[in-house]
Write a structure and sequence with these properties.
This protein is an alpha+beta fold and 423 residues long. It has 14 helices and five strands.
Length: 423
Amino acid sequence: MTVTSTPGGAASGAAIAKGTDSGTSASSTGTGTGSAKRDVPLPPARFAYDRHTWKEIAYLLSGLPVALVGFVYTVSMVSVGAGLSVTVVGLPLLVLGLAGSRLIARGERARARALLGVVVEEPSPMPRRRGEGPVARLWLGLKDPVGWRSVLYSVIRLPWGIVGFAVALTGLLVLWPVLPYIARGMTNADRALVRGLLSPSDELERRIAELESDRGVVVDTAAADLRRIERDLHDGAQARLVALAMGLGLAKEKLLEDPDAAAAMVDEAHGEVKLALQELRDLARGIHPAVLTDRGLNAALSSVASRCTVPVQVTVDLPARPADAIEGIAYFTVSELLQNVSKHARATRASLDVWRRDDRLTLQVRDDGQGGASMHGGTGLAGLAERLGAVDGLLLVDSPPGGPTVVSAELPWRDRAATHAAR
């Protein structure tokens, strides 16, 4: 009888062959069972050291040098930073050290992903706040939870790395039959360590980072709006009022000497007053239009649509008025989108639809223009998307070359009555 075995299964094949020979002997004694046993197909021998096992062993063996580097760096960084904390350079060095610990942790996540199949998301970047002084930024760096968890990982990893290295090396020499089971158990502990200390702590941490970024966008937008208002006042209404005051002063001097010339100058000043009032109205509309406050989005958006250079069909289907802030953002979003239609779309007609879906306020502007609109390359749509994102909003652009263009915006719905009651 011939017994076939695969590599690594020679011992088991021999044992099976021995058992088969016994069965043959039994059949010769007249039991009548040997023939049936010989007809049963033998199970294929399997190789215990598959590629997953070798990867786990490689992880354990490489863990010691990596852990040693991380431990030495961490201890040196903390010791130097803490020891020099009484000086000017100590705390900044500690912040830089935490940034380095983040890099070590990134390498460990990559190693775990390649050898253990553990996919861990990258944590949020080190928090940064715009417009704050170096002391505030330093304090944020010192409070970085990701950096400190990376430090803790490097400290814990050294003794565990020594154990893993010793067990894996010894197992390859004297414990190789059970090494796959040992490697799996030890690397499961490594998997838990990586997930526990090197992954984002929770969604709250990521959300905090997003809010930090959004707050910077809001601050920058508000500062830009203030600069625009100041510029419009200085270059527009203020300059016109200065010229008006000078004209009235000249008219006063000529009132007795040349009444006709004075009357003409007063008439000219009257026209300047009308232009100044119109500029102030336009400026006030740019800050917050009165029609929006008095009559809501339907009337305000209809007013915006009437100023567009192409006909716009407006449909507003809202069960109630949203909060003032959401109304204002929706109004200015539509204003900017319709300005883009007027300036760039080369369209013949457009439509504006506004409705509420669940807890979201949705706006959609569609035109039959040339298309090709994009949020890339620092366009106005990119800035609009940033401003919407600062309030948990969303902007989507579908504008293939040749058109049509559909721009959809979503904002969180907040009840107007609830907002007023909270005040």
